[in-house]
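Researcher: Structure prediction, please.
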Amino acid sequence: MTTGVLVMAYGGPDSLEDVAPYLLDVRGRRETPDTIVHEVRERYAKIGGRSPILERTWAQASALDVLLNANGRRFVVSVGMRHWHPYIRDAVRDLRNRGVTRIVGVVMAPHYSRMSVGAYYEVLAEAANGLPVRGIEHWHLLPGYVATLVEHVRDALARFPEDVRDRVPVIYTAHSLPERIRTSGDPYPTQLLQTVEAVAAALGPHPHAFAYQSAAMTKEPWLGPDAGEVLDGLARAGAPGVVIAPIGFVCEHVEILYDVDVELRSRAEALGLRLERIRMVNDAPATMAGLADLIREAAETAGWT
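Model: Predicted structure follows.
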């Protein structure tokens, strides 16, 4: 009996030509208006013409592979994307071909929502087609993840002159979701604030705020406050600069490289604010070690060891 580990992420286009079919997949095969395709394509053009999410996710998977199999090969690790190649279904097929008979899934998103992480496990369950599956639903308070964030926030603050550093607020951000999740009791907003509280407690007294970013281009209300609006308020209050800490994301992709590094930075410059972004978690050793422990625990709980 062989246990597979499927590391899952959202996916992103490999080229500008892939933007339209990628959006078609994201939108459930509904055609995307040309204006939106053009705008999204322009965003990817400004960050190098493609998404680096697949390479970053493979780096995370490779780190987990080393940790999980340090004392003899027990796990087969692969990568599957929800909305682009290699799709989750293709990764499951690959794991089957490699002799896997059960799967532990982990989504590279620390905070659970039925609309996000929950959707990954629905896709995985369908693709598994009878294979036993265990999923790690959230890891927003994983000590290694929190420790990584604390280290990266401190590093970003250290880029500011010492005489203003204590007055530079940190804006913790996460991907917005439709406002309607609040009425369903979805844990996403609460888990985000729990991460903020954990990081803030470890840092000690320091000004900070929380905001959502990257709301979709729809008429439906999305969760707020918006990061841009929070940035505006801090500028009016006389902040000497700002650190952006995207705690809801673990690697660089368009929501980081464009939404923060291009759009939000440009807004900060127009306000006369210096903006520094923390390094992303990526395959940070402390976070990967914690996730490896969660994977082992899930396998052991299922009796797969």
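Model: The chain has a mean pLDDT of 97.
Researcher: Thanks, that helps.
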